[in-house]
Amino acid sequence: MTRESALVLFSGGQDSTVCLAWALARFERVETIGFDYGQRHRIELAQRPKVRERILADLPELADRLGEDHVVDLSGLGSISDTALTREREIDFHENGLPSTFVPGRNLVFLTFAAALAYRRGLSRLVGGMCETDFSGYPDCRRQTIDAMEQALTLGLERATPIDTPLMRMTKAATWRLAEDLGGETLVRLIVEETHTCYLGERGRLHSWGYGCGGCPACQLRSRGWDEYVSGRFA
Length: 235
Ligand code: ZN
Fold this sequence. Notes:
Radius of gyration: 17 Å
CATH topology: Rossmann fold
Strand content: 5-15%
Number of helices: 8
CATH architecture: 3-Layer(aba) Sandwich
Helix content: 40-55%
Largest sheet: 5 strands, parallel
CATH superfamily: HUPs
Shape: globular
Strand order of the largest sheet: 3-2-1-4-5
Bound molecules: zinc ion
Number of domains: 1
């Protein structure tokens, strides 16, 4: 463990929960930030405190270093975005090949607000779950974009602002394995039961891989990764 501190971009989904555990295993002080950007389904926001509570209750060795949570109102972003995550519209693809779930500028805005908060709170690093392997087609999840943001924030704040993206090169199966490495079966169960990824906000039935509609791109990624993880575990 280093004496550094971190602010984790924490949405309440699978990836950001693994990132939170990763940061708690590494840094002396860890805080979380979430964004209310007018997402159509409020379930992710509702799951955030539940995930944090389960970490505090079930994973004391990680929970020791878990500090404050911050929720930032970015409803302005939702109001200017016409996407499947912020409006009633189909999940499909635009002519430019990007899915309608892409919220233009989202990660850029998130990272800027996170950096401003980290500045005030004296937190030395940002951690985010961006991933380009199981690439959902989001250009703001590429490491190249994150590198450029790191540079812009470091220059613009005149303060080193490293951005860790531990999942950047991982498949979803590898992300499940990382969760197991960090917190054993306890963390894997916590992620299955409490985190939310489904684009349709479906939370009716618990599958082996968690709650969700099972059919949207986010559920498909999550369930396929789970199957691959489980078959690897018993191979
Ligand atoms: Zn779904």
